[in-house]
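hiii, so i know i said id send this last week but things got crazy w the move. better late than never?? heres the sequnce for the chain we talked about at the cafe, plus the structure i predicted for it. fair warning i was half asleep when i ran it
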Amino acid sequence: MNETDPALAPAHRELLDQVLDKWSLQVLESLCERPQRFNELRRSIPAVTQKSLTATLRRLERNGMVERRLLSSRPVAVEYRVSGLGSTLQDLVDALLAWSASVLPDVEAAREAFDGPGPDAAPLSR
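okay and structure toks below
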């Protein structure tokens, strides 16, 4: 691929950055299972902060991947669901998650080899 390849256009990179960022994959994975309210979604991803989840949902909604629906209940509640456009990502998200699970041991081994022995490791004898 080269810089004139449309796959590398700035708009494509921006979309991929916003859809594949730190929290978006986890949000999409959770919402692909079923629609959820904000606090449900937050409980399903315990490490995400309220601020990060809000920003992620807004970004995904802006890009048409997630829909925000007001529920007629007391008090008024909001539910998030994957949109039709967002559902086109489900197979890709599943594939990325499966790929990461399958290669993680090799990645961890490569990191250990690159980082070298820890500070508590015994010195090499010569």
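btw The two ends are 47 Å apart (CA to CA). thought thatd interest u
miss u guys!!
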